[in-house]
Amino acid sequence: MCSLRSWPRVILGAALLLAAGALPRAAAARPAGAAGADSVRVNSYLWYAPAARTVHVALDAAVGGNNGGMNFNGRSGGGATITVPLGWKVRMRFTNQDAIPHSAIVIAGGPPVPAIPQTPAFAGAYTRDLTAGLNTGDGDDLNFKASAAGRYLIVCGVPGHGASGMWIRFDVAAEAGAPDYAM
Predict the structure, then answer these.
(1) Which of 6, 81, 139, 169 has its CA 20 to 30 A from that of 149?
(2) Using CA atoms, how far apart are residues 48 and 146, in angstroms rounded to an integer?
(3) What is the largest CA-CA distance in the chain?
């Protein structure tokens, strides 16, 4: 057992070991299935594997206070655009960081956003409990193929949330050479 006087030395020793690489560092959170030497990181929310033609997206509800927390990755009202090449697989990990329930669905079209979005643009492009939402800390995976070029939206499916600005853009483009995330 350490005395109160020895704690500064213990903390300093642990910091030196961490800096020297003797202690493991926490790994950055990534959606399931994202890894490999061939992956290319675009930003903290998007990376892709060109050989597998797969894009991985971390989609977090309520990052920061933008739009009263009604946002994806800190953006709302179309303030971010994810672009995916036509025909690529999309692996999107949704996590609710808010105190109130949220969900996610990819829908066709553009604003105005429906009060209750219910029809996904692609099979598998929605979270479970779409209208009730997922509780704080809960997550779900949206796994789908970007099979049709066009402009889409990622919207919260909880009634009224999307119409209140909880949506970002999702584009599928035949001419896109690689996935991108413009914020």
Answers:
(1) 139
(2) 14
(3) 65
